[in-house]
Amino acid sequence: MIDLKALENNFDEIAAKLQKKKVDSALLEALKEQALKLKAQKAVLESLQAEQNAKSKLFPLYQKEGKDITALKKELAQNKQNIAKEQESLRELESDLQKIALNVPNIPDADVPAGDEEEDNVEIKKVLDIPEFSFPPKEHWDFEALDFIDFERGVKLSKSRFSVLKHQAARLERALINYMLDFNRERGFEEVSVPYIVNRDSLLATGQLPKFEDDLFKIEGEELFLIPTAEVPLTNLYRDEIVPSEQLPIMMTAFTACFRKEAGSAGRDTRGMIRQHQFGKVELVAITKPEESDAIFDKMVTCASDLLTSLGLPHRQVMLCGGDLGFGAAKTIDLEVWLPGQNRYREISSVSNTRDFQARRAQIRYKEEKKNRLVHTLNGSSLAVGRCLIAIIENYQQADGSVAVPQVLKPYLQ
RNA sequence: AGAGAGGUGGCCGAGUGGUCGAAGGCGCUCGCCUGGAACGCGGGUAUAGGGCAACCUAUCGAGGGUUCGAAUCCCUUCCUCUCUGCCA
User: Fold this and answer.
1) Domains of chain A as residue ranges with CATH
2) What is the ipTM for the molecules in this complex?
3) Deepest of A20, A80, A125, A193, by most Cβ within 10 A of its Cβ?
4) Is A255 helix (H, G, I), strand (E, B) or coil?
């Protein structure tokens, strides 16, 4: 959630910044109006409550002195009705405000490039050269002889966009997960194992709800959802907590399966396992003091990029433009891995700084100078495991149709 | 899943309708004491919002209700513990 007090005080500045994310300033105007109305309404209610409280305290005194209390009682019964009425309108104002506020995206950083779509993203750097092949490289689904991926049976078990890994691919996936977790742990990210099912509050806190419920798998009959990313459980570990400042920064890594309905992606990447309803991902999450979140952000980007480099996978770093930025992100750098079969770079990791956007929703704070301040939260895929597997298959394919194994994974495949 | 017990401040724990935001203790912290420390003594020690401030409002798991007034009574719900059942 954006800071409503800041919106009140620096309206023009915030409205201008949110232009990058295509947020209508009329909506922001309405939000500000609503916030002011709410404040005024609160003042009205509170003075009535103050009166009620003060006069209620007279009863014991009256009774002690043997005074008549019927008139006072009547007056307060009346006042009570007024309070109920004002409370009702306050509640309405509050829920209206929430409805707007929870749907306003985070404010992009100053250095986020302007632009509406993917083409406007800015390449920061390329790492490793694109490999040359002496033969036309195949796409990852063209390795029938090796029987790596069974798309048909995945569909039989579940539905489209599900698949089954077999033989060396299944082992490679597990090797990758272990390798990634070890890699991250060596760089200071502590390994955590978290639930794959979370409640509404958790998804509200990280920003997937209320806006993106259509993208989530919901457990029927319960207010529970399958996680779309480990960012949700990891960040929510500290929801409604005041973290001792000496514990900061908290840096975590976890492997989880992720579940997404891909509601808006009909027809895209229907072939292969680029876009699945279920995929494995090793995630990085950091909780930091505001002043150190930029440094941690760089660290996370470097960690993910170095991981790809260590696997010998050519990739590039791309700074997302305002229009392509996610709902909760102030700034995002995507890592795109080279897929020879597709002859293009594809997203394999995404590192975001949400600043205090999630922290405000989640009420994650730390104590400084006796005051509680909101932390910054950051998240990033260490790597999407499925896409990484694809990248290895395509980049390490040999002329004879076999696939080599990256050197660093060999110890994990013994 | 069934039966019972319970959820109070950083922690322990008192409080069953009226100056209770909450006794007491522990912890922490400031001051005194000391060469320094322990002990001892005195003070402070939740969060959010509003107000220049005095101060006001809300919060005793959450939500609703009764009442002039609720931590205390009623309802709903979540969670924890114990026993029984089931289960990887």
Assistant:
1) 4-101 (1.10.287), 118-413 (3.30.930.10)
2) 0.89
3) A20
4) strand
